[in-house]
């Protein structure tokens, strides 16, 4: 393909029309099913009942930033913002590397059978419903005969009400997320690893590199494009801390560390009464996500890594 | 590649399948439109997403056309799914699909519900007869328009205090009927079973059960000397309540995890629950299943009411705004009201049973035809899609003849409408507009969190009672006064109708 | 495959680590299976989760799968959805990802931005529903496929995979006069089996598990996918223990139904996955770079 700058718009359109035609189905989908409903974001600046339908959305009066003010002026605004970011950061720090390590580890296994079995078993937790996961967590952590507290008693320690403890709650949450997602998350890295040229390993081996060194200095850099992409996307999602499991496990004693944006909005009631409010909060999250994504992408480019664009 | 060819064939087959399926559906639209129709959103829990089998459904539909001259059309959906209301709201918002009769919290649906005053006068005499003035008022807006037909109206309370009968007997004490007897009862139970404890359902349930023992106004708003509507948290005696409960928690009277997420079933199985204060169905339904399955043997008993120094310790539920409504987009509201009216006929309770359970004789039959109350269900296929009158008014007319449900229905009949077992809030008949409240006093969500969060912190000992005044200060900082102002404004506006 | 003659300490540690991971995953799963086989009577005595039931009781499975007609139809609907849905997803995703992976294509950045904004900004449930309803797609199969035809995250992943293929291959084909579609199909795809398999798996599992869209868009009981039907039965089971009154149907404890649901959902995936794993091989290099 020749340089772009010298080409006019319509000339390019004609020359590369085969490519644009290929992209057309996706583009049509995005325009129709994503951009058209986006017009509904205007609800964030209105006070509407959802039942007024399309006419209502278009004709009802603007209320400006009322919902944003309600959100920002909430007594607990900084608390829930802090919780959301805190939980998410904790997950990124401890949870993001786990699928990568798992993929690397699986890759080092030579026996195809063992590798397949472990890999298959590892993603089973992904299919557990949130309700059952929460039930399992409650069962393991309860003071009345729960596994963890039984062990503590054996060791002569006092039983701990983990789900009531602001100290432990977030860690429990993050461990649960990791447990649920690591196996399934490793699939994409394993797929990326298949694209690595085996010759790289051989020449490194000739240079005297050990297994561990090969994994760190060859495998990881070769799948860097995927790692960085997913890292950027995860950072962009900084304000998503998960909802279901928090909702099923949290209670008043841990609100101050576990009440996140989504649970806060949920408790204020959704559709019907607070629809506009929920949309406004969602819009806030979106704008923050956009800023973070652009920043993360910029940082990645600075570090010579492929970014989002 | 063979794989691709297989895939292509599968895709082609699938497309053909879908095309023929939708085409086949379209060809059955030959119904003659002389019979008026009513589209009903399900109101009973037996309706599922699969719906009643087609043949059965059509048979019952035909029967109802014969009886009422109106053709009901139901919508299969999982009534108990948390997403069920979401689906209803989406359909109402979109307006492409027809729903005539639905239910929900009427203040949320004001924009889409049809005012019923004239329609009820003309076509709905039975409906008007079935409800008290207060119940009707609870579903009327400030301009006097009746927005919906009440489902619950003003009722008593459904949170009760239960005691484990075995432990009471072994301890040799009678069922407590006063507040003062409760702590000694627990202590006596503990002599028999050192692990005996108190279990609660939600914090709100437990306060509804017991707060009346400490405050005159119980778990409800109270009117202060300046005519302002205050929340229960500032009532005289609330601090004592929290302090006493904190003391009890420290002494180990409560199940340690009762205020955090726990599995009620597991706790009940242990046999250590001496006292349960909370939502009735944990015992009437959940625990009965444990009993029936044989894993536990102890029974729970409940006094009609428990009296404290100020009267009953329980608080009645404020007027309920759950109502059956008719959509503004309904093309034939007269038919809808007529269909509803037929079900509210108290002289003919078989009408509502027919709508709910099917054809008399085939699907159900009275146990005693002279006394039309108990009935036996004979078939189970029909899910009740055409039942449009669900609610207390009709619930109290009849009872299915099964042990579990019988206890549930008799509880409802005996207690639910009986207001004297609990404190009646002074603003019981005022239908506060929750939406306006959130618009004008946006701090209300924060106050709700603060109250429930701090009450639990105090009771569990995470915060010392000495901090109480600091807590009241925090309430003010979070906007407590704005909530009081708005509540008062609405109360003054709505109290005289 | 690299050849090794001796087992090093690294290998042993690696095996141990993986064995621990596997245990952490399989023990809960065995617990779930065990709990799904618990009878009413045993449930009323023992704890919430049971590793090994005293008596194996299939009533939870009987309740969920018992009405074979309904369940079979639900299964058919689900399979149809998985097959056709995934095919459509892949079609749209592969083409768009390929186009935006061509580094020197004018308009590539624009198309990527178009995608990017949809990842962040979402109109919400009501506008989307109104759109689908206005297009008369409600209660149709396509309501389950079209609104989520493209997942931007997965598309970007696929784009990165495509971009990783050395440009020389494509340039050689262009010189030979090949059209982009042909290049995609005959050159890029065979080299991207792993990524296509991965993203295809993601879409397929989404279609298999997904129930919310089906619940809100489909009104006809005959068209419901399996997940909605099973959840429906589960909810009835849950409600018999909660604050509701249902008909006289003695159901197995809802706890065993909840767990049986997981088993029923997971088993087909466990069976299908080995076939997908086959594609996790290095892409076949077609021809050479020169000539």
CATH architecture of the largest domain in chain C: Orthogonal Bundle
CATH class bucket of the largest domain in chain C: Mainly Alpha
Count of individual beta strands of chain C: 0
Q: Summarize the amount of helix of chain C as a percent range.
A: 55-70%
Compute the separation of the termini of chain C in Å: 28 Å
- CATH topology tier name of the largest domain in chain C: MetI-like fold
Q: How many domain units of chain C?
A: 2
Sum this structure up briefly:
The complex is a heterotrimer of chains A (309), B (497) and C (291). Chain A is an all-alpha fold.
Overall description:
- The complex is a heterotrimer of chains A (309), B (497) and C (291).
- Chain A has helices spanning 9-15, 17-38, 53-59, 66-72, 77-95, 97-107, 112-122, 130-141, 147-154, 169-193, 198-206, 211-222, 224-236, 244-249, 255-258, 261-267, 275-302.
- Chain A is mainly α.
- The longest helix of chain A has 28 residues, at 275-302.
- Chain A is flat.
- The two termini of chain A are 19 Å apart.
- The model of chain B is unreliable at 20-30 (pLDDT under 50).
- Chain B has helices at 2-26, 54-68, 84-94, 117-123, 125-130, 133-137, 165-171, 182-192, 203-210, 238-250, 264-269, 281-293, 333-343, 350-357, 392-395, 403-416, 434-440, 444-459, 468-478, 480-494, and strands at 37-40, 71-74, 101-105, 149-150, 159-164, 197-200, 222-223, 229-230, 273-279, 300-301, 307-308, 311-312, 322-326, 364-366, 374-377, 399-400.
- Chain C has 291 residues and is mainly α.
- In chain C, helix 3 crosses helix 13 and helix 7 (152-163) runs antiparallel to helix 10 (193-209).
- Chains in contact: A-B, A-C, B-C.
- The interface between A and C is large, with 92 and 94 residues.
